[in-house]
Amino acid sequence: MSRIFSGERLVIASHNAGKVREIGELLAPFGVAVVSAGTLGLAEPEETGETFVANAELKALAAAKASGLPALADDSGLAVEALGGAPGIYSARWAGESKDFAFAMAKVHEAMGAEKDRSARFVCALSLAWPDGHCDSFEGVVEGEIVWPPRGTQGFGYDPFFLPRGGGLTFGEMDPAAKHEISHRADAFAKLVAACFR
C-alpha cells in the first residue's frame, strides 16, 4: 500500500538542474519545498539497477537515508525500437562524462543508420522513499518517434530529438507547460500524486 506524503520538504535525488526544475514545477501546487541532492552535497549512488524502476528506487533510498528526509528520484530515458530499446537505462551515459546530449543524439542517429522504423518512447520511473526504507514507485511512458536533425532549444536531454505521437512539435520545440501535460514524467507523476499526495 502506498504511503501518503505529509511533510513540507522533499529531496529531489538528482544533480540534473533541468530535471530538478521540472519536478519542482510539478510539485509546486502541493506546497512542497524541494531541495536537490546536489544542493545538499549528497553523493550520487552508482546506478546498478537493470530497470528504470530499480535505478529510481536506488537513488531515492540513498537520498532519503543520507538526508533524513523523504526523497523523490526519477530514472528516465529514451528507448528506441530499432535499437532494441537502447539507449534505455543508459541514456545519460550515451552523453558521456560531459553530459553532451547533442553528441548523444548524433550517436543514436548514427546507430539507427537507414532504419525506417523511427518509433521510440520516453520512459520515466518515479520513486518516493522515506528514511525508514519504505518506497513507492510509478512508471510513465510517452510514445513518439525520432526526428533528425534535432529541433528546438526548450527542454533538456533528448527533447529536441523526440516527436510525441500525433504532435507536430518536438519536446525541444514545445512550451514547457504543454510538454508537462503529455510527458512521460507527467504520466508517472499523475500516478504518484494519485497514490501519495492529498
Layout of strands and helices, then pairs:
Blueprint: E1 9-12, H1 17-27, E2 33-36, H2 52-67, E3 71-80, H3 101-112, E4 119-129, E5 135-146, E6 162-164, H4 176-182, H5 184-196
Parallel strand pairs: 1-2, 1-3
Antiparallel strand pairs: 3-4, 4-5, 5-6
Helix pairs in contact: 4-5
Brief summary:
This protein has 198 residues and is an alpha/beta fold. It contains five helices and six strands, in the order E-H-E-H-E-H-E-E-E-H-H. Strand 1 (9-12), helix 1 and strand 2 (33-36) form a beta-alpha-beta unit.
Give structural notes:
Substrate binds at residues 14-19, 76, 156-159, 179, 184-185. It catalyses: ITP + H2O = IMP + diphosphate + H(+); dITP + H2O = dIMP + diphosphate + H(+); XTP + H2O = XMP + diphosphate + H(+). It comes from Paramagnetospirillum marisnigri. Homodimer. The protein is an alpha/beta fold and 198 residues long. The chain has a single domain (9-196), classed as Maf protein, CATH 3.90.950. The chain contains 5 helices and 6 strands; from the N terminus they run E-H-E-H-E-H-E-E-E-H-H. A 6-stranded mixed β-sheet has the order 2-1-3-4-5-6. Helix 1 (17-27) links the parallel strand 1 (9-12) and strand 2.
